[in-house]
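Notes continue from the previous slide.

Worked example: a multi-chain complex. Inputs as given:
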Amino acid sequence: MQIPAPFDYVRASDVDNALALLERHGPESRLVAGGHSLLPMMKLRLARPEWLIDINGLAELDFMVREGNVFRIGALTRHTTLLESPEVARLFPIVTDAEQVIADPVVRNRGTIGGSLCQADPAEDLSTVCDVLRAEAVIRGPAGERVVAMDEFHRGPYETAVGQNELMSELRFPIRPRSSSAYEKVERRVGDWAVAAAGAAVSLAADGTIEESSVGLTAVGLDGTVAGIGDLLGGRRPDEDLFAEAGRIAAAACEPVADQRGGIDYKRHLADELTRRVLRRACARASEEQEG
Amino acid sequence: MQISMSVNGNEVTRDIEPRVLLVHFIREELGLTGTHWGCDTSNCGTCVVLMDGQPVKSCTVLAAMADGHEIRTVEGLASNGALDPVQQGFMEEHGLQCGFCTPGMMLTARALLDKNPHPDDGEIRQAISGQICRCTGYATIVRSVQWAANHPVGSAATGDAADPSEAEEVTA
């Protein structure tokens, strides 16, 4: 039987209260939202916080709202809510693609976007999604609010820019014209971590050529986005040869490790193939967007 | 710490350690052993209960987190001696063999049908994709949920047909 080590539990009444509680209880206190990363670690005694500060009641962190050309998603937004949002599916289909394959439907009822990002598991999907969409994380702490770009947010496996006495409050996604995106993952079964996954975001110019593009990979040892893809695709018309070239760059850029989910060659093959697929789909979606 | 919640419509209040998981609270504190405890790692789904109407894996929820919420377990599916159509469907279509995954499967099915009364087979498979059955191969579970969809509460074919002794067999 897996039971966490003893701890004290308190419910935060609002964000300021949560920050005050983190300050009061110090480094041995942890925030908990959906709990589907932290509680399993506590059950295995890999994490032993002395205080759990429950932020599930903070409605102020549970929202989705468009403001001009920015889409704001509260950190406490559940995976299921993201998956079922027609506005998210229209603006950022990569989020919907990814949410369909994150954990399983029951886990998605509890897990949150903020929790996934802050857990920063190397095989976690939404980090790649946020990277390619060039999202920004809003972090609140005793000194107020700061906004950090994704390359600054990620610090490595299980490590982010969010300090011990801070809290991620929201993610901000820029909305670009004639743009779309896609995500695809290969997993052994529902709920397992990715063998490999890829995400792409593209913006097309009025003449149908690619203006901006970005590709990210999950679970194959690549931080941030694949260097060189934007330069390769910029100004070119989307076609299969171009996608194949991008796939080769992605496969060369990643550094997968062999494990029970597959060998290095297989994972590189997936990085290549999945890069082609997500670019193909993102470009097709963006051109539909353009026509519509 | 003291927590209170509604379980199958009954208010319960207990003093617990904060580290008590919801599945153990339900089984050991409340004695409702219809909720099963399986893999302990939020993979198998036999511990699924409804929290405010949504399926959750109760091995990965603290009882403290359920304070103030509404919990529904397999014991709360039947009402006034009549089986829920989902329970009846699992009987009619042989949706179980050993019965270990059944409580979680039935609660997820209930939540699915509340949201989507006429799911297709793909939607049913998707809904139960975080739950593991090692006996049926899932085909009969999908048929059981379809049976329930075709016999909603209030339709002639549910309720009266249920024999109370069979009800116990399904939920035990």
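Summary box: The two ends of chain A are 55 Å apart (CA to CA). The longest strand of chain A covers residues 194-204.
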